[in-house]
Amino acid sequence: MEKFGGTKYNSMWDGSTWLMLGLVAACCLVPCFIDHSLWLVTLCLAMLAFVLLTFQGIYYRIDGDKLIVYSFFIPTAYPIDKIKEIKPTKSVLSAPATSLSHRLAITFTDRQILKSSIPLIISPVRQEEFIQHLLSINPEIRNNVRNK
Known about the structure:
This protein has 148 residues and is of the alpha+beta class. The protein has a single domain, classed as PH-domain like (Roll), CATH 2.30.29. It contains three helices and eight strands. Strand 2 and strand 3 form a beta hairpin. Helix 1 runs antiparallel to helix 2 (38-56).
């Protein structure tokens, strides 16, 4: 049962996501062709399943005045009224985002929310709708994302 309700936004899967999954699959399959042992095949399939589950477990939800970020199905809630700015980023920092090319950096007015000055980096599908939803809750957010 979900702890939070609201509107769900999956994390975007694009070419970079599929490339990462392809690399993991290739790294798992190559040893299986070299050594046909059952334990190695099982281990490689388990690793691939883990990566797929990890990617499936990344999504976002806007519920009331909270932005809930799920990372491996574990929710972390952030106050939307403390969001200062949203801007596109190509940062490759580790983040709850499956895309490397369609990312948003969210900065907060209070550094204690993330316990650092590094922004929260996410990659929601329907980015324009996602941003408009946040702006409808907090119109003070600086939106530096240009509409396409």
